[in-house]
Amino acid sequence: MASFSNKRVVVIGAGIVGASLAYHLASQGAQVIVLEAEGIASGVTGTSFAWLNTAHDAADPVAHLRSAAIAEYHRLQTELPALQIRWNGALSYGAEAGSMPPGTLVSREQIRTLEPNLKHPPEQALHAAAEGALDAVAATHALLAGAQAHGAQVFTHTPVVDFLLAGTTVMGVETATGIIEADMVVLAAGTGTARLAAMLNAPLPITASPAIFIRYKTANDLVKGILSSPQMEVRQGADGCLLAAEDYLDDTPDNQPAAIALRTAEAIQDELHGVTSIVTEFACVGWRPMPADGVPIVGYLPNISGAYVCAMHPGVILAAVVGRLASEEMITGKPSLELAPCRPDRFLSTTSA
Ligand SMILES: Cc1cc2nc3c(=O)[nH]c(=O)nc-3n(C[C@H](O)[C@H](O)[C@H](O)COP(=O)(O)OP(=O)(O)OC[C@H]3O[C@@H](n4cnc5c(N)ncnc54)[C@H](O)[C@@H]3O)c2cc1C
């Protein structure tokens, strides 16, 4: 693969993954055009809890990527001062055996110091002091602004509807407003990636996996870091609101986002001091791009030249590290060993063209 420095790269999708790719590609000299069907971070990035945690089980083939995530975000913060991250740590307790995240075991006394508003601090919890959370919408804007500072162009409300092909080589994309030629097209369209890949005869098994996102108006500074327990997963948003993430259960009236938000609000009132009033500002289902085996899909599509895929969950955690590694291999032509478990061809039969 020839070097892509100075080459034209179209990135499809302006969620946090596409934005990170755009930033890393542009800062290494590629001429980047980002095409977004709607607005910036209008996909699932806009409703992400955005906890930067490194939890993984021993058998996870991308444990090394998750472990690198925090250092990669610290690197990005030195490069992009506008990127704000609350490095306030995370306290977890009550998870089922075997799924506890990494951290230091802390006592009830220590928990009281870490989260003084907890009404019923457990005997023990795990405290991951290095972890944090970001505003995924603001982070996406910061990454795209960084890309634009390196010459990238960003077009919103510009859906990609087809690809421009010469035989088995992708030569560009077709949008509602015309054709854009490119040396490389990167599919970073979240749950829209499977549809785009299918247009290139690459059926990738990426499902839309639901989760509930809730934003509450309540007292400021109820929790200092991230709190994860069987009763609730909450953190303070940058604007003082309280954010929560909940499992999606089903589509029945009792389990609509507004109903889950009410139940979660009750749990928050039961668990935290200082919640004199709590009002749901927003509750919705967010659709996460979930590869069938849970492992990110990152790399060139087989059987076709010029198309690179980047679809993953958890995309916020992995955006910084994968953005760097994927862009480096596109720019240098040298495959990244770290990305080896993520290749799309594990799902696709390769044919010699
Ligand atoms: C409740 C909840 C909590 C979560 N918590 C966490 C967490 O704590 N940590 C974490 O890492 N992750 C978390 N996630 C998941 C995380 O939000 C996603 O993995 C991540 O945002 C995916 O980013 P993305 O850029 O791949 O996708 P998206 O944000 O969906 O971006 C894809 C973009 O592509 C655009 N697009 C699609 N098709 C086209 C097309 N044809 N042409 C042009 N543009 C197109 C879309 O409009 C969209 O803007 C959570 C998700 C939810 C719902």
Uncertain runs are none
Bound molecules: flavin-adenine dinucleotide
The count of helical stretches stands at 7
Q: How many DSSP E strands?
A: 20
Mean pLDDT: 94
Structural class: alpha+beta
Task: Provide the β-strand percentage band.
Answer: 25-35%
The Rg value, from CA coordinates, equals 21 Å
Report the biggest beta sheet as strand number plus sense, adding barrel if it closes. 8 strands, mixed
The 3D shape can be described as: elongated
User: Helical proportion?
Assistant: 25-40%
Distance between the termini: 16 Å
For the largest sheet, list the strands in their spatial order: 6-7-5-15-16-17-14-18
Provide the succession of SSEs: EHEEHEEEHEEHEEEEEHEEEEHEEEH
Strand-helix topology:
Layout: E1 8-12, H1 16-27, E2 31-35, E3 51-52, H2 63-79, E4 85-86, E5 90-92, E6 104-107, H3 108-114, E7 124-128, E8 132-134, H4 136-149, E9 153-155, E10 160-166, E11 169-175, E12 178-181, E13 184-187, H5 193-199, E14 206-217, E15 226-228, E16 233-236, E17 242-247, H6 257-271, E18 279-291, E19 297-300, E20 307-311, H7 315-332
Parallel strand pairs: 1-2, 1-13, 2-9, 5-15, 13-20
Antiparallel strand pairs: 3-8, 4-8, 5-7, 6-7, 10-11, 11-12, 14-17, 14-18, 15-16, 16-17, 19-20
Helix pairs in contact: 1-4, 1-7, 2-7
The protein binds flavin-adenine dinucleotide.
The site of flavin-adenine dinucleotide has 39 residues, from helix 1, strand 14, strand 18 and helix 7.
